[in-house]
Amino acid sequence: MAQVLGLAMTLWMFLTPIFYPPEAIPPHLKWMLNLNPMYHVVQAYRDVIIEQQLPRLAQVATLAAMACTAFLVGHWFFRRSKNAFVDVL
Predict the structure, then answer these.
(1) Distance between CA atoms of 5 and 72, rounded to whole angstroms?
(2) Could you tell me the pTM of the whole model?
């Protein structure tokens, strides 16, 4: 699992426009940026640090929606599998 997770995190880092501008991505693949939650985080930091303006409301709303979804899925998974925790621990 450690090797798979390390590979996945490295791949995720290179798929997030950190070392290159988002404009370098071909137009037909730009829709994939909206699925990457780290893109919105990086873009918000770029807006504040480089552009010296507040992050766009749409990006903040997208981040909030993704965070709420992750919380709800995690809560559902925890509630569903908490009885099995005793066996594992």
Answers:
(1) 23
(2) 0.69
CA dihedral for 16, 21, 22, 25, sign (positive or negative) = negative
Q: What DSSP state is assigned to residue 15?
A: H
Q: Compute CA distances 14 → 11, 17, 54, whole Å.
A: 5, 7, 25
| Tokens 């693949």 belong to residue | 29
Chain segment 18-68, per-residue pLDDT in tens: 888 888 999 998 898 888 888 888 988 898 999 999 988 988 898 899 899
Tokens of 4: 């798979």
pLDDT tens sequence across 10-25: 999 888 998 888 889 9
- 16: DSSP letter: S
Give, in order, the Cα–Cα distances in Å from 51 to each of 42, 46, 48, 89.
13, 7, 6, 49
